[in-house]
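Hi D.,

Good news: the full-assembly prediction came through. Inputs first.
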Amino acid sequence: DAGVIQSPRHEVTEMGQEVTLRCKPISGHNSLFWYRQTMMRGLELLIYFNNNVPIDDSGMPEDRFSAKMPNASFSTLKIQPSEPRDSAVYFCASSLGGATNTGELFFGEGSRLTVL
Amino acid sequence: RKEVEQDPGPFNVPEGATVAFNCTYSNSASQSFFWYRQDCRKEPKLLMSVYSSGNEDGRFTAQLNRASQYISLLIRDSKLSDSATYLCVVFPPTGGYQKVTFGTGTKLQVIP
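Then the structure:
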């Protein structure tokens, strides 16, 4: 079975440009998460969707960040305009919620973003 | 105090050694705990859950100490392939995902 699929795997862009990261969760999973990982701060939860609805976006750094989940199989994280401090690895993860929830999050391979 | 704290390491240990990591958490009402493993430049993957009664999986043992608010991971007979960063994960009292907190990880390097 396919795992969580993220694209692009790597992105190098210049300050001020728009960046869009994409995620396809595991089929049947109803929870989706966007995390950001840096050496200094570790893994930080940016936003969490349940059944395509944003539940908690308190981790989104500022208005430059936005995330959408138009359907159960696709989500985007957009940064506009990008800044050098946004450079990080962005992970998307999905999970099967509900009574069968084991607490396991399945991560994609990540999108490594470098903003020059 | 941070919600979840780990010693970043690195822990450099020879093959065959036993090594243990601790992870402290601040919310005494936290319900669920896990250890994840992250290889260099890879995504985190679930290693094992941490139950109140302890949990053993081969060379790995995870334990929970609620009184002192920490979880531990013990690795016996370390292998080169165990080299990775180990993240502890704490789920909030409500059981929801909103405040799932990852520790910053403990790096383990097993040396030949």
